[in-house]
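DM from R.C. (forwarded with permission)

"hey, sorry to bug you on a friday — could you get me a structure for this? deadline for the figure draft is monday and I only need the backbone to look sensible"
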Amino acid sequence: MSRRHVQFPCEGRMLSGTLDSGAASGSTGLLIVSGGNEIRCGSWGGQARLAARLAEQGVPVFRFDRRGVGDSEGENTGFRTSAPDIAAAVAAFRAAAPHLRRIVGFGNCDAASALALHNGQCGFDALVLANPWTIEDSNGEVHAPAALRQRYLERLMNPAAVLRLLTGKVDLRRLWRGLRASSTAPAVSALAQEMMDKLAPFSGPVTILLATGDRVAQVFVSQWQKTDPRIAEHPGSSHSFSDPEGQEWLFDRLQESTAIRH
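My reply, with the result:
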């Protein structure tokens, strides 16, 4: 496996990317879009390790820092305005690996949302969206009923919290309001609706990966059509699939998505 650093332009700024490839690289590559303000190596180097593993299996992988993040120049204006960055990364990937016939886009959290929103401008052949961000609340509060129920369940399993309840140190009116909210179906957010609309005309395969233990994923499920056949769930994993079983499950799903016509 080889790892090569690549610089490429985006609207007058230079961005930094990394290409991982193997001795027998296939014709389908994976482009990883980082979520939040995370640099291209990923949390605790998770994306770098994932890229290396896939490259060893013959899947070229390209990672990059969008403008204003990590080693890239410019101003970071968030995932909603990242279409030029992603499109530039796709072009750089194709230039660095000209044998590629297909590129699969993969992102977690708001990177998944960015791929859903901007797919029409970026030239992907397939998408893998993990725990997509659909929360419109400006402070990032997670209000989905499933997330609230999980929060109250965790508290009730905590002996200290139960003791506070039994000794009258818990505001019962606030608790009742929270329980009522956990049983109320939320309205679909504008962001979730926009993602649905932008994904509708996409002609390639789309896979939606959800960690059932993740509150962002729980919010997504509450906003999305639950019978969507594109959804695959892994029970109990965290937001970044950081547990060993979650890592293997994610790796297997990405192998499946990039296995078509190597």
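R.C.: lifesaver. The radius of gyration is 20 Å.
me: no worries. The longest strand covers residues 2-10.
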